[in-house]
Design brief:
The chain has 50 residues and is of the alpha+beta class. It has one helix and two strands. The longest helix has 15 residues. The N and C termini lie far apart (35 Å).
Length: 50
Amino acid sequence: MPKLQVFIVSTRPGRVGLPVAEWFIERARQHGGFEIEVVDLAEVPSGVHG
């Protein structure tokens, strides 16, 4: 099964990317043709963003 990676790149408080990604991920799950992997940069340890 193909892997679909969804990247949430906004890290600011009140970010809009998260609800948009959640909407998209739900549609991808309904499709059923992908293994879904979510990468949220707000949760990735890095010294680059706050």
